[in-house]
Amino acid sequence: MMITGGTVSTPPALMLMAGAEQQSLAAMLGAQGFMPAATLSLDLVIPAGATVLLVDDLQQHGYGKVELRFEILAAAKLTYLMREVAGFAQGSIAPTTSIERSITCTLAGVGADANVRCLYFGDGDRVFKIKTHQEHKAGHATSNVVVKAVLTDSAKLTCNSMISIAPGADGSLAEQVNKNILLSSAARAVSIPMLEVLANDVRCKHGAAVSKLDSEQMFYLQSRGLTPEQTRSMLLEAFLS
User: Which helix (H) or strand (E) holds 158?
Assistant: First the structure.
């Protein structure tokens, strides 16, 4: 993977070894001496045939709004994971903060593949803003974006997701879904999925759902001896897995 530009104030180009092992985005930047900034904007290239598993842990290291633009070349595979669930894992309210992510995956070569997973737990008055764009420029490429959130108190999430298929990008497969569980009446989730298809012979789908915990699942697990707290924890952990 190569970072071709960006602003932490304009970091120089970096070249990384591609591989299936997990890579930390914060560690990658920290190793080059970059300091956390309010706004981070990066262009990243996944070389042809490479496989990259990238973990976005920038929030825990003081970064604010982050814009990531991936160019995925022929037969390359990107897996991107952001998991911001500290409050849920610790069982306490996380610091009040706003998390913003703009993630663009440009599938620029035949056989390119992008998988994006963003998992959030929001409590207090935390605000999550996520914007994704699956941009298919080459044919026979695949992309899949999944955004899941569990929100309580007055936490809010806004998810804007775009799938665009360019003319001639036949054989494209693109999927996008946003699922949310609200644990309080003041929590809010807004999902705005969009499609722009300018090619034939493609498969695209998008979906969004907002719900509460399933009462039947709660009843079933409690009838097997679990406490309400254990039941809630088990269902939410499964949802955010």
Answer: strand 156-165
149-206 pLDDT, tens digit each: 999 999 999 999 999 999 999 999 999 999 999 999 999 999 999 999 999 999 999 9
Give the number of other CB atoms < 10 A from CB of residue 176.
26
Show me where the domains of the chain are located.
2-213
Supply φ then ψ for residue 227, to 5 degrees.
-75, 160
Count of alpha carbons within 13 Å of 195, Cβ hemisphere only? 14
Alpha carbons 66 and 58: distance in angstroms, whole number: 8
Nearest to 179 by CA among 154, 152, 159: 159
In a 3-state reduction of DSSP, which class is residue 20? strand
Q: Which residues of 152-163 are buried (b: 16+ CB within 10 A; e: fewer)?
A: bbbbbbbbbbbb
Flag residues of the chain having pLDDT under 50. 4-16, 90-94, 96
Q: Is the dihedral of CA 96, 119, 192, 38 positive or negative?
A: positive
Phi, psi of 157, deg, nearest 5: -135, 135
**What sign results for the dihedral spanned by CA atoms 50, 20, 27, 178?**
positive
Measured in whole angstroms, how far is the alpha carbon of residue 216 from the centre of its chain? 29
Cα distance between residue 77 and residue 19, in whole Å:
10
Q: Coil, strand, or helix at residue 94?
A: coil
